[in-house]
Amino acid sequence: MNLKYGDTVFRMKTITYYKDTTFLTQRQINSSTGSSTLLDLINEHGITGFDAPCGGNGTCGKCRVRIIDGTVTEPAENELALLTERELAAGIRLACSCRPLSDITIDTFASRGDSAVISSTSVSVAATTPATPRCIKVAVDSLPEASILDQRSIFSRIISHDDHRMYHMDPHLLRQLDTLDPEDALVIRDQDIYRRIPAGERICGIAVDIGTTTLVLYLVDLEDGRTLDVYSALNAQKSFGADVISRIAYATESQEHRDRLQQVIAQQIQKGIEQLLGTHHLKSSSLMHITIAGNTTMLHLLTGAETAGIAASPFIPVFTEALSCEASRMGFTGLDAVTVELLPSVAAYVGADITAGIHTCAIHRSPQPSILLDIGTNGEMALSVDSRILCCSTAAGPAFEGANIACGTGGIHGAIDSVNITPEGLTYTTIADEPAIGICGSGIIDALAGLLEQGLVDYTGRLLGPDESDHPAIREQDGNPVLLLAAGGQHGVQDDIYLTQKDIREVQLAKSAIAAGLLTLMGDALLTIDDISQLYLAGGFGSFIHPQSAGIIGLIPRKLIDRTIAVGNSSGEGAVRCCFGSEHLQDTLHIAERCEYIELSGHKQFQDLYIQEMMFELEE
Amino acid sequence: MNLKYGDTVFRMKTITYYKDTTFLTQRQINSSTGSSTLLDLINEHGITGFDAPCGGNGTCGKCRVRIIDGTVTEPAENELALLTERELAAGIRLACSCRPLSDITIDTFASRGDSAVISSTSVSVAATTPATPRCIKVAVDSLPEASILDQRSIFSRIISHDDHRMYHMDPHLLRQLDTLDPEDALVIRDQDIYRRIPAGERICGIAVDIGTTTLVLYLVDLEDGRTLDVYSALNAQKSFGADVISRIAYATESQEHRDRLQQVIAQQIQKGIEQLLGTHHLKSSSLMHITIAGNTTMLHLLTGAETAGIAASPFIPVFTEALSCEASRMGFTGLDAVTVELLPSVAAYVGADITAGIHTCAIHRSPQPSILLDIGTNGEMALSVDSRILCCSTAAGPAFEGANIACGTGGIHGAIDSVNITPEGLTYTTIADEPAIGICGSGIIDALAGLLEQGLVDYTGRLLGPDESDHPAIREQDGNPVLLLAAGGQHGVQDDIYLTQKDIREVQLAKSAIAAGLLTLMGDALLTIDDISQLYLAGGFGSFIHPQSAGIIGLIPRKLIDRTIAVGNSSGEGAVRCCFGSEHLQDTLHIAERCEYIELSGHKQFQDLYIQEMMFELEE
User: Which one, A187, A568, B443, B454, has least CB within 10 Å?
Assistant: First the structure.
């Protein structure tokens, strides 16, 4: 999920396309080879939130997708005209003009509303396994008829499987079982008879990813697992503290504060649910459950649980388990028979966003050691090796989110999101091609990588001054050297946008924390960088980072550049899956149980590595 | 449970005593050999409801127990003086005066209140397996301390086991976990954190057996599985119909009627709970759950589910599954955080009383084929053979409950409960040794057995008249022969008490239905009577029946007399166990899944056997 400092709304959608099969979350669709454009496939399978205003004529240039993996046809003339060289290099293509030549994985981008930002999710194909739907709609007219030869109870006929367990059952619903209408259906949820609905009514769930900054809700079709729509907004708790620690400080003051934070997020989720259901003309009786991922603190704040233990050593949360309760107990109104469930966390700083992310990327199923790295204010990471999953969290600080950076900003329209420094000068792109208003995480990393490559920053992180370099972007401001990214008064840019020495120091601190965390995990697992087969970059900013630049500045080991995949919001994707599929939920519960948390505070090797990784590694 | 036609209250208690170990439901206690009297052991282990008014001096004769199995010391002088010959022959002894000489199994009898009746429960020793308590009280001051080396969440510390599942959790309770008092405890119920209570508070459950006639509640100590007390009353639904069919007829008329029946039984259970908790000074916060056994119709009426399907072919109930819900949903008030759970049934006429009874008698674990026979208005029976459990239900009619019998009565004080006919005359005993007021089931069977043995009834069931026999008890009344049991105006008896030809016909119908059911089950399992290792007689009347007489009249196969054990209310005992122990509940759920129901209506072999068994088999 990209960061943004305005209350924006956007859609996002993941498609992983195979030559012979298309996965839409959990749906696998056979498709003929090479005969259809990507746009055909997208439309054929009812993916919403994907814009193609010209109707696939190849003229508007809006139906952009990114090819993550696999080969497609060469760029057509219209693509060469409508896409920049940089976009083409980054694998951006027009869905209407591009046909698959092999099994491929793609990202789609879809925006909504004026202030929208582009976002995306891509899923590792290996992670996608077929799942049994958690909710099954049983039409009354499909129930086997009772006879002297089949004397099973009505209840047994509906659940139709032998399972010696106790069923949770509301007598109110039980009383209706004898007067069912042939046009009714019963929804079985996690093997309990859960609700009576008209047979024609759709059944849906809501998957939620509560980020410290951003709240995302996904409307999930519980029959086929498709994500029907997405609602996103800045976390409304933000006015009570921008980051986890300040929000905990507020919450710790009193039960009233905790109640307030609880109400704020519950009401915001409820608002999002109402909007999603309304847009799709769904009644609240269609909604079965709400499946929630998020970091440990956000889940505590949603339940109203005390967060003080999270903030101070020894960092003890109230709960890390997966929990469920009725929505009304969590402060939701009008959703009486809906269940709210929180996905499992691991520790105070490794939350359900990570367990859900591990499920999405399936690092625990990889035969070779793999890493999930989720970058936000904290850099949370998990390393799978054999049957173990080691995880830890490093306090990276908010530099990559644009905070504490002189001209920093979140991933909003006009943010500089990529920078290319040559010996002659500097070029950049902005989100939505709007006049630059600041620089966001991926741009900052690109800029620093360029400075290092051009020798304008030395291995200690010192930025050369105009007296030491004649590069045109190196300027002086208030007696200090800066990298001028965009000059005010030109191309619609109001004020100068630049990177300072202090900005570079902020990035140094952040990248060394993350790099040291990665190396500590590997060390604890007795692995070297060469043993790692794949690194998945997740988180709001993870999907936009350029792995090449991240490798150059040492945020990730340089050797892993080619083994790095940006997976976007793997937490949200995991929540969607757990909302839909039994095996997905079980897998995520199992992941949480297997995760071994490594506390880095006081970890000797980590401290050494942290200092060591502060320096930059210059290319030999 | 004994039938009674007055709203009586009584206690009952089961003890199975071993020479070296004492089982109190699930509690196993080491005890020195031979050194203690049974009364010492009973007192030592806190069994309530057992009367010894003289304090063990051997003078009052009230501390009666029945030796089921094993050897004890010879009767002492006071026992010979205070017990009748018949009582001694039946294994009745005084607990104060009797010491075990081997592993033994005993029944205790305990009464309460003036109008009380004696009842008992004995459990097959083989069935008693140790169980894991379903509710565990975790004292806050016993929780492992958090440290940087043990960063588990507070929740994890409380549940203290790895289990990748989703926990049901009320956020209200979650919010309290951070502010626990060292004097608090948390109750974990079926692995969920369920309630916060003061550490010194006891935790208890209520086990319920809803019979068509009698309602019994057991107060169960959930820490050690002991039954602390029993509440019993006539089922208050009785005024809406004495038997299952008439009650279904009333319920089927309207939803209002169903609601009324639902409220009546829920309120009665609630009243019983309040009385039991009050007597033992327990708060409602001590009560964790209510575990309910009963026949299928009674469980339907408790939930308010429609019963019409049960009454008419093909006899389809709404549910047979084990169900749970919050007590408030079942019409209980003031028990908000209490769970109500219904044990699993098999079919319309094989209910949770039978699955619970099978668990109690453990016929499914017997290496040899065994039978459970529960006699009430219906004769319900289950036969275990290898991994199969076959069961069926026969409409025996209410003869054994004293209904449709000229001088019949339930098992109340003054009921003739045993009859002995000699060539010279007839003797009888009554419950509580009070003047005879009628004859109950066990007396009817004894009387008929005596008539057959003395040749006063022929194999067709015809009662000889005074013109055919000079037996002094054979009299004539209104021109028809009768057996005079007690003459009016003598020994405090008001009116003549007798058995008529019509009474004998009623018993013939009842016994042939049950006998034919037993033989049908054996036939379907390809077994003969010789293959059966044990027959457990259960039900209100089952614990008082004399197997010898039952064999003579052909209620049970004559060959099984020596292999027959009366087990009393095996349903209630099963509910108590399921209330307490995880394995007990799991076993009962598993039993219900394994039971194969055999429908006898239209069953060719059953019909043939029913006619065949109508006749009496005279001893060769």
Answer: B454
